[in-house]
Amino acid sequence: xxxxxxxxxxxxxxxxxxxxxxxxxxxxxxxxxxxxxxxxxxxxxxxxxxxxxxxxxxxxxxxxxxxxxxxxxxxxxxxxxxxxxxxxxxxxxxxxxxxxxxxxxxxxxxxxxxxxxxxxxxxxxxxxxxxxxxxxxxxxxxxxxxxxxxxxxxxxxxxxxxxxxxxxxxxxxxxxxxxxxxxxxxxxxxxxxxxxxxxxxxxxxxxxxxxxxxxxxxxxxxxxxxxxxxxxxxxxxxxxxxxxxxxxxxxxxxxxxxxxxxxxxxxxxxxxxxxxxxxxxxxxxxxxxxxxxxxxxxxxxxxxxxxxxxxxxxxxxxxxxxxxxxxxxxxxxxxxxxxxxxxxxxxxxxxxxxxxxxxxxxxxxxxxxxxxxxxxxxxxxxxxxxxxxxxxxxxxxxxxxxxxxxxxxxxxxxxxxxxxxxxxxxxxxxxxxxxxxxxxxxxxxxxxxxxxxxxxxxxxxxxxxxxxxxxxxxx
Length: 475
Fold this sequence. Notes:
- By secondary structure, the chain is α/β, with parallel strands linked by helices.
- It folds into two domains: 7-290, Rossmann fold (3-Layer(aba) Sandwich), CATH 3.40.50; 299-474, no CATH class.
- Helix content is 50%, strand content 15%.
- It contains 18 helices and 14 strands.
- The protein has helices at residues 45-51, 78-92, 104-115, 134-144, 152-162, 168-178, 210-218, 237-246, 262-265, 267-283, 296-305, 313-338, 360-378, 382-391, 394-411, 416-424, 428-434, 443-474, and strands spanning 7-13, 16-23, 30-34, 56-61, 75-77, 97-102, 120-126, 179-181, 187-189, 203-205, 224-229, 250-255, 345-349, 355-359.
- The strands form four sheets. An eight-stranded mixed β-sheet has the order 1-2-4-3-6-7-11-12, sandwiched between helices. Strands 5-10 form a two-stranded parallel sheet. Strands 8-9 form a two-stranded antiparallel sheet.
- A hairpin with a 5-residue loop joins β13 (345-349) and β14.
- α12 packs across α17.
- The longest helix is centred in the C-terminal third of the chain and has 32 residues, at 443-474.
- It starts with 6 loop residues before the first strand and ends with a helix.
- The relative contact order is 0.09.
């Protein structure tokens, strides 16, 4: 009796049946594999056969492909694929795994890794990058939108013509998993027929721009391997090299004698490249997290993708930036309203009865410098930002604000009540505009900080002038 070296199973994820193949020891480190457009998890059969003694290998038929269900709503967006992967992970109770994605599956893998990085130990991208060569993509589209119903051997010959790197025997075996027989006796593709129909109304992929795609790849923080087929017409060498440079912890391997479908075109060299990478991962030889993390704008995008998991560090840091910026803005507008054009210093009584000089401009600069420090911390990584924010002496910022407000009280000839009324006339709209240094992730926190800071400034004014009035009554 012939036995298969893998098992085939189904799992339901949000009402959608997802089919998968599993190889190896269930107790071994898990590796999840996502195929490209128009094929199925069986595209990794040769690779899984070579790795099953070391890892638990799981090849998922993504929605609309292989033996998984087609989407009833025609939803094949990137978000739908990512949600399927997360639901699949939960259904199999897998915590962390190595994620391998080919072509379309690679783009889904990048998006999943950015959104659910805690579950991905490492990412392996097979002949996919932030952008694809139009010629190669057009070739795939023409092939998959060719004749829809043929005899089995006609499909085999057509596929061999499309990819002559494979033997007829190999293609025949692969087509067993890509085709299904119709009642008429003809064969057709398993993947959703609507992909091959014009004006089908399907929602497909993502609408991100080219720049946004590059930014998404740069947002990947786990160790990454990019594998390019040496004869690929989809992923160019220039794009692969640039992606390896700009991603934070990536390396590039080019597999000779392989086109776009690297794992099946040259399974031996593909397996060797992946095995070498995973050996370095297990031994801790891969590059650590970079010292210079992503810019603040990119961290904001990452935090937004994780919004359902609660407020991130960036939100807290951005809120702190907004708070200090609000103080600086309050100081600026209050000083503008109450100080004479040429007044930069003033005097205030000290505790020993002498008068000390208060340099208003210097106090402003002190508060401004602290705001700049927090802004710089926001551009750091989440962990570095947390540490940096904790180092900022916010008491000094408050003292600087207090010095300026005290100077304002001394300079103003109005009664304490008039000073407080003037403080309330600060243009809060302009003040809020000054706090936009905080990112989108800190908008809510920043808005609250502006309000608190303004109230705090008014209270300081009242306290300072009250102290001044008491001092005058005792003299």
